Amino acid sequence: MNIVITGSLGNISKPLATELIAKGHSVTVISSNAGKQIDIETLGAKAAIGSIEDASFLTKAFEGADAVYCMIPFNFTVDQATYFRKVEAAYAQAIKKNKIEKVVVLSGWAADEQSFQMLKQLPETTVIDLRPGYFYTNIYNDIKSIKEYGALMAGFGGEDKIAFVSPNDIASAACQELTTPSQGNRFRYVASEELTCNEAAKILGDAIANPDLKWVTLSEEQLLNALIQSGFPPHLADNFVKMQSEIHSGKVFDQYLKNRPELGKTKLKDFAKEFAKAYN
Questions:
Q1: Are residue 84 and residue 25 in the same domain, yes or no?
Q2: Residues 49 and 179 in one domain
């Protein structure tokens, strides 16, 4: 198959491209960074350098594709909702013009039914909405707070139950969906391990020789202030606070349980070894 991947060589896109190529598929990787071209080609993929906001560029990049993987990264410089709609519109135009039959989109376990509605309304395209849990790699952002305060901190914590996920397991799920015939739009949750935040903190703490490591729940006000102080635009900070509040309430995990997937193979103990290297 001819498959196009967005997301450059990110935490999901790189292992996804690697797995697809290993299985004999022809892969094009889209990146806005021309400096990534050599690395993309070294993997055995074709590089398409341009912006996912540019519908004309995407239309050209999607030519001849049997399936595409679409993700929309955060953009801290603009209103996120406006940016999301612009990129989704560009994707929709390119997909429609090229009559792409299969699209796998990356949302998240806190996503609602309105995510990627523009793509889901394309009549000739099957759209699979991947909804991964809380990325292991997000925990790298907690290194500073662990070193300064001896704790991970978020709008959830303690005994809150979380579906954690490895980007490698997300990539494997995306690979399966891109290459397996299917009819009709649907969503699929992706998770590697289900743990309370306290259980996760214990695993991470043991890996960094800090057995007393805690995962502290911040109030909404504390979280909002922390995000803004770290550089988040207020509108984006508000969205993060709302999402994390819903995780803390149990709403997100309850919805996940209604669509519980088979867990991936990469457990938090596996990631903790890599985390310890970065931490130390």
A1: yes
A2: yes
Do 198 and 186 lie in one domain? The reply is: no
Residues 216 and 245 in one domain: yes
Statement to judge: residues 121 and 158 lie in one domain: no
State the Cα–Cα distance between residues 237 and 227, nearest whole angstrom.
6
CA distances from 118 to 16, 86, 90, 208 (A): 24, 11, 10, 45
DSSP secondary structure letter of residue 93: H
State how far the Cα of 200 lies from the Cα of 194, in Å rounded to an integer: 9
Same-domain pairing of 77 and 185: yes
**The predicted structure's pLDDT at residue 183:** 75
Strand 102-106 to strand 67-70: parallel, antiparallel, or no bridges (unpaired)?
Answer: parallel
pLDDT in tens, 222-280: 999 999 998 888 878 888 899 999 999 999 999 999 999 999 999 999 999 999 999 99
150 and 85 part of one domain: no
Note the pLDDT of residue 230.
86
In sequence order, the β-bridge partners of residue 161 are 196
What is the domain count for the chain? Answer: 2
The DSSP-derived string for 206-266 is HHTT-TT-EEEEPPHHHHHHHHHHTT--HHHHHHHHHHHHHHHHTHHHHHHHHTPPPP-S-
Which pTM value belongs to this model?
A: 0.95
Chain-wide mean pLDDT for the chain?
95
Q: Which two tokens stand for residue 170?
A: 């997300």
Which pLDDT score is estimated for 235? 79
